[in-house]
Amino acid sequence: MHPPHRLEIRGLTKRFGPVAAVTDVGFAVEPGRVTGFLGPNGSGKTTTLRMLLGLVEPDAGTALVNGLRYRELPDPARTVGAALEANNFHPGQTGRDHLRIYAAMIGSPDSRVDEVLSLTGIWDAAHRKTGGYSTGMRQRLNLATAMLGEPPVLVLDEPTNGLDPEGIAWLRRFLKEAAAEGRTVLVASHVLSEAAQLVDDVLVMHRGRLLAAAPLTELAAGTTLEDAFLNLTGALA
Ligand SMILES: Nc1ncnc2c1ncn2[C@@H]1O[C@H](COP(=O)(O)OP(=O)(O)OP(=O)(O)O)[C@@H](O)[C@H]1O
Ligand SMILES: [Mg+2]
Q: Where is the ABC transporter domain (predicted)?
């Protein structure tokens, strides 16, 4: 694996016509921690992640991975493992074939496919066509794909969608372990109660702006993350 990487976002801004999707957002994400990128629907989380991954051109600002823009990274697919929407699989392909093709594409050995299948607990479904996967199985295959290149950075968008409580407990262990291995883990979620179980640090988005950045224990000291969020947004009303 590449050495630990730090993410740095500075002054990111993006409008879609009349919609100010992201306005002057800046933060850093450190290795060895699970960082939650939290906020309600439409608050600008996915747009920020897409700018970080070079999928959307910002109107202003920069998103840097160890000091470089995504497009400038020498080995992007093996530096940043990304899992955005969990529905971009060819429905007629088995999970294993999907992983093998992606591994070949990014220059990871075939043996890594078996590793990520066990890592994400989808061994049993590996030979089934992804068109028949449940939502939870898709999430796991998405995570397996993100982990193929042994990336020092993981960027996950709503990875708890479709997971049952057991799946969320599993994801929690998975993310903790990834962070303990020195990875930088950024997880976007609109479900604060679930996110509170997963993360060490919290970035709070609201209407395209970053409202707070703090360790979870500090932000939600003596209260729940939901109440802390209501206090933050209530102060704006
Ligand atoms: N391609 C696009 N064209 C037009 N508007 C867009 C586009 N992408 C995002 N938006 C708008 O930008 C705003 C932020 O959307 P974004 O998807 O970043 O939010 P989010 O925080 O990820 O929400 P969710 O929790 O629902 O995933 C929304 O108002 C959305 O409608
Ligand atoms: Mg989103």
A: 7-232
